[in-house]
Amino acid sequence: MSVTKALDTLTVSSYLGDLKQLELFTQKILTKLDTTDVLKFLATFENKRTLNRKLSSINTFFHFCHIQSFTHEKIKIPMAKVPKNLPKYLTPQEIMCGLELIDKSTLMGLRDHALILFLYASGCRISEALSVQRSDILEGWLKIRFAKGEKERVVPLAPVATEALDAYLQKQDMASSYLWLNYRGEVLSRISAYKIVKKYLGVSPHVLRHSFASSLIIGGADLRVVQELLGHSSLETTQIYTHIQKQNLQDTMQSFHPLS
What we know:
This protein is mostly helical. The chain folds into 2 domains: 9-67, no CATH class; 92-253, Orthogonal Bundle (hpI Integrase, Chain A), CATH 1.10.443. It is built from 12 helices and 3 strands. It has helices at residues 9-26, 35-42, 48-67, 92-99, 107-122, 126-130, 159-171, 190-201, 205-218, 223-230, 235-238, 242-256, and strands spanning 137-138, 141-144, 153-156. A 3-stranded antiparallel sheet has the order 1-2-3, with no helix packed on it. Helix 5 (107-122) packs antiparallel against helix 7.
């Protein structure tokens, strides 16, 4: 299933964790479960997003079992309806204010400064960013080789981000092909990257991905271009940012129209 659906290793690991949790809850072999068993398990989750994540794992598993004739019953439970909330994002001014707090006289300061600009300039997922190697950046273009779903994409990097990256790499003489390293020369962990962004901006790294997309939408970028840059397989996923575009238009009207 991981091959046929092109799932990345993190997604596969997450699916397996959900299925083990289901098995422990029911105390039954998974292929012996029926819809009632699954519904009892799902009823223990109040958060609809968590419930849907568990349900996605379960439906995928039972679909696989059915097409392989491991089970006779075709279990497919519809997802819970989740309200589409406006994604949290920072304005360019908020990001620049946070960057001013960084002490760039040290190697780790240069790294933190370059990492935040890199995330905002590329729209990378943090897992993608931490997998980037030096050879993946060429003439202002970033090749994302380990994207979600094992897909590749290429995105342009803003000059201010490449300049910050160059300043960091000129000081960094550790023997590694990877960009983002800790003080021991090891690849930076997701937890460490989270702490860096949280320290200076007060948000998670994923908010910088939302900020990247929001800045493009507010600036007038086509939705399909944003979809390509973010690596979304479906345009529907990218459409959450159209709410930001509408909000920006409303704010503009209220600020400049004489009748507002």
